[in-house]
Amino acid sequence: MKKLLLALVVVAAIAAGAFYLMHTEQVEDVINSMREQVEDGYITTEGVKTDPAETSEPEVSMPEEPLYVGDDVLAPVRVSTPSPQYTETAKKARIQGVVIVQTIIDKGGNVTDAKVLKGLPMGLDEKAIEAIKTWTFKPATLHGNPVSVYYNLTVNFRLQ
User: Fold this and answer.
1) DSSP 8-class letter at 55
2) Nearest CA to 127 among 158, 85, 88?
3) What is the 3-state secondary structure (H, E, C) of 69-100?
4) 28 membership: H or E segment, kind and range
5) Virtual CA dihedral for 9, 11, 12, 14, nearest 10 degrees?
6) Closest to 38 measured CA to CA, from 64, 60, 13
C-alpha cells in the first residue's frame, strides 16, 4: 500500500508540473492516464515500466542446418575428449603427426559427422574419427540458443 501511495505522490508531482504546461482539462486527462498506469503496474516506486510487448526481442528462429562459428555463433566447448588409440602398424613405423577433421557438432554437443581434411597413414585417420565420435561438447550457441555447427578438430598422434 505504501508503494502505491508513493507512486501516486510521484504521479501527483508530475501532474503538478504538467499543470503549468497545459490547461486544466488536459491535466485531468494526464492524471487519469497516470492513475491507470499505476493501477496496471506500469508506474511503480522503481520508475516507469514499459509494456513488455514493446521491449521484448522478436522471436528468432534457429536454423536447422549447421552454421559456421563466427560473428554471433559461439564455438562449442570440449567437455570430454578421450585420446585416440594407435594402430600397431603405425606404432611400429613410428608415425607421428596431426589429423585434421571437419565435423558437425549437433545441438546436443555430439559429433554427428566427420570428414578427414588432413590425414596420416596406416589407419590413423580411422582411429582419429573413432576417437572424435566419442568426444562430447557443450554445444555452440547463437544468441544463447544451442545450434549445430561445422567445426574443425585436430587430433594429435605422438609416441612416448
Assistant:
1) H
2) 85
3) CECCEECCEEEECCCCCCCHHHHHCCCCEEEE
4) helix 24-40
5) 120
6) 13
pTM over 0.90: no
In contact, 104 and 64? CB cutoff 8 Å: no
Three cell numbers, residue 13: 508531482
Instruction: For cell 613410428, name the residue.
Output: 94
For residue 71, give the C-alpha cell.
560473428
Q: What is the largest CA-CA distance in the chain?
A: 98
List of residues 6+ apart from 27 with CB closer than 8 A: 15, 18, 19
The 10s digit of each residue's pLDDT in 5-52 is: 556 555 555 655 555 555 556 656 666 666 666 666 666 656 555 555
CA–centroid distance for 93 within its chain: 45
Phi, psi of 71 (to 5 degrees): 55, -115
Residue appearing with cell numbers 585436430: 154
